[in-house]
Amino acid sequence: MEDLEARTLLSDLSFAATAEGIVADRDLDGTFETVDTAGEATVAALGYQAACFGQKTYNGVAILAREPLADVVRGIPGYDDPQSRVLAATVAGVRVIDVYVPNGQAVGSDKYAYKLDWLARLTGRDLRQVGDGNPGAARMRDHQLHHGGRTHDAAIYDRAKLRAGDVVKGPAIIIEMDSTTLVHPGCSALVDDFGAILIRPE
Predict the structure, then answer these.
(1) CATH class of the region 2-107+114-123
(2) Left if phi > 0, otherwise alpha if psi is -120 to 50, otherwise beta: which for 93?
(3) Is it the case that residue 187 has pLDDT exceeding 90?
(4) Domain spans of the chain?
């Protein structure tokens, strides 16, 4: 969008918006750390509306826009989260959502469990649903595909029905509404805890 009409600003990037572009400004480092009007007042002089949501030293999100901000929501509705990670506002009829996803650190740690719970609340989807490694429930039909100068017996899987931990052995095709994933012969696709498909040689 021209002239930075609407720009999302993460607190840990410490950026300020100007008519010429986005420039680093260390003076704003603490601006978006506290939940008050300091951030709004600072950027108002630059011609921007601002909404801030943060906590000192740690997390924070902010939205800057030339147009007025409406329907500002801080945090995930219905979730009493002590961390400031989600901010939403409507700008010129467009809903803008700024999300600062938890790191999670090591798999199995308390912070990892918090991340999965947080993502489930954000998306409304339980990302901790774990499969048994067998993707049979997602298998739609048998198929043949041509790869490497040969025709291979394969199967087509429904992406939406795969669960974390499921493994699809190639050759296979995984389909969803807007994309198709090919698992080559000699490879397998693992669905990770976040629903991503990781393809590796066997």
Answers:
(1) alpha beta
(2) left
(3) yes
(4) 2-107+114-123, 136-201
Structure tokens at 104: 């999670």
In this structure, which amino acid lies at residue 5? E
**C-alpha distances in Å from residue 5, one per residue of 45, 52, 148:** 16, 17, 49
Which is more confident, 121 or 174?
174
Mean per-residue pLDDT, 109-125 = 83
| DSSP string over 129-167 | -B--S--GGGEEEEEEEEETTEEEEEEEEEGGG--BT-E
Q: Is 3 helix (H, G, I), strand (E, B) or coil?
A: helix
Can you give 63-128 as a three-state secondary structure string? EEECCCEEEEEECCCCCCCCCCCEEEEEECCEEEEEECCCCCCCCCCHHHHHHHHHHHHHHCCCCC
3-state secondary structure of 28: helix
What kind and span of H or E run contains 31? none
Between the alpha carbon of residue 161 and those of residues 54, 92, 140, 175, the distances in Å are 37, 37, 10, 10
Q: Are 123 and 98 in contact (CB under 8 A)?
A: no
Structure tokens at 131: 């499969």
Give me the residues paired with residue 189 across strands: 168, 199
Task: Report the relative pairing of strands 139-147 and 150-158 from DSSP bridges.
Answer: antiparallel
* Residue 81 confidence (pLDDT) above 80: yes
